[in-house]
Amino acid sequence: MLLSSYSSPFFLFLCFYFISTRGKNAKNTVTFSGLCAGLFFSFVSPLSFAQHADISQLERYTVTATRPYYDESLSRIFPQYQFDKSHLVTPLHTNELLLQAPSVSLNGQGGQIQSISIRGYSRWRIQTLLDGVPIVSDRRAGSSIGFVPPEFITSVSVLPGAASTYLGSGALGGAVNLQLDATENPYLNVGYSSNQQMKTLSYKDSVGNTDWNIAYRNANKGEDANGALLFDQFEQAGLFLRHRPESGFIKEAWTLYSDNNNIGKSSSDYPLNRISTYPDNTHWLGKLTVGADNYTGSIWWHQSYLETSVLRPQSRINDSENKALDYGFDIKTKGNWQDWWFNWQLQVSGREGVEADEKEFSLTAIPVEQGHGPDSIALLEERAPALAYEVSTLNANEINAAGIVDASRQWNSTALALGARVDWQRQSDNTGTNENVTATNLSGYIGVNYQLAKRWATSLYVSSAFRNPSLTERFFAGETPRGTVIGSTKLQTESALNSQATFAYNSEQLQGAIDVFYQQIDNYIERQAIADDVLQYANLDSATIKGLSYQLSWQSKVNNIDATLSGAWVNGRDELGNAIADIPADNHRFNVGMTLGSARFFTTVVYRASKSDVAEGERPLDDVITLNVGGSWRMNERIVLQASWENLTDQLYYTSTDDKAPFAQGKSIQLALTYLL
Fold first, then answer.
1. pLDDT at position 86
2. Which helix (H) or strand (E) element contains residue 36?
3. Where are the alpha helices (DSSP H) in 620-669?
4. pTM value?
């Protein structure tokens, strides 16, 4: 390390800043905020050179991730699972980490900002967290974690089922929490994926108690198994900075800045019917964690900006801009009384400046001369965009406050946990109507775990959940790829009751669990046609989602072999027996890994069953089996090589049931080289 702590964090951030903002004059607030974050971290860095650890003592890929606070009580009643990158080489997107969970599936259309579903719940009904910071989006497709480079993430945890007690509105169907890289060892990593000619570069280092990670990723259009182009290109630059004081009131402070450009929305409409692009997708977020005595708390923020451009060839162009500032803080403490353990928490969160603006350009034919002089002919061939209208489709904000309490206790072979939440929210329309909508909700859970034998246990978990309508569902009025959409201030809060039974086994070499779940949701919100090409959000009746998921893991003592088998069956119906949208096809996944000396090899086989019973706006799916193989080789104490062959048999299949979903990428060779500094 040649840079002293006087300059290195600040210098690295300046490099990133000028690269990510080249040629741009928009989003000055976001980019200036990112620069301020870099200045802050440069000053809090200790004034000393970073010291190299003893190479012989370094465990290259071992991390220590802080578990979410809600795990403390929930882990008493059913197993908690995390998924890492041990079977991934150069992930195209962060979603690839999440897809290792049997309850998680891709949803909607493809590309870098494709969303996911958990047990058939998607869009605004599941919550995405980055180290506990909620990621909220005004897109109907829901939030996407694709703006975070996979290099910044070390593992993911999945909490399926109703989780409103801890996470509030938006966790009706569960949540995913991504853990930021906690490795202490500096490294330089380069990667390549052949299908998209994707190139990646990441650099992680530290000075004293301050560490940072810089990543750059660039990908062209990929190809499906037939060689047809996919509109899934992107460019991404990201910076992560974190400071962990050795003592004092502040325990940890981190910030992340991500700039994404020219993002293609991969769709079966491309290229003849519709070409959707996200020219710019920028995020700046951070979190400050504090603690004193028996109290801890955090303050977080997330500023986002998204540009969307939809071209309908020979017809029109619709451009839109979305921006928002999300923020929040919480304070919590815990205690015990007569063998009971208690947790209390106060949460406050809000959304300010939630705006969406739209412009439509009609493509008007203009004459183009062919030939020269008197023989020239005027042809109506080219089309020039002419502004048809410009309108603000959303301008709103919201504030939310909640109190949470839980309690847990152990009696010999029985553990009990229960909790409750009181939640208040106010949403305001700022377009001139100044209309306010308030809502108060209660949610809770109770769970019990019984140890049947030394290695066997069973549990029962019952929870209630709610979801307030989003600002888009309340106040939006404008054009979308599906037509004109209108919000409604009369929407009722969605509510759900979830029950889950778990049967688990745990030994030194073998761990497994089977979850059977049933969830009913009332006041289901969906868009309904009220006129030709006009949709409005409305409360439907009720729906039920039920199914089974399982996971079995085994590790050999002698041969350094490990294997995991997981899968899920999910079924969703409305009260008339019709299929509801976003229910994934049944899937099963088998991972095998083997370590031989300094090399490790792995294989992943995924079976996705066929699906013919689909909802409106979806297409049937054929069954498919995909195969990935790969390995890593530690050449010496500093260099690690990795390689994998994705979709080895070059299968052609759709990524989801969405009727506009694209085909998945065909076969691809992925390479990565890590140099430990």
1. 79
2. helix 28-44
3. none
4. 0.85
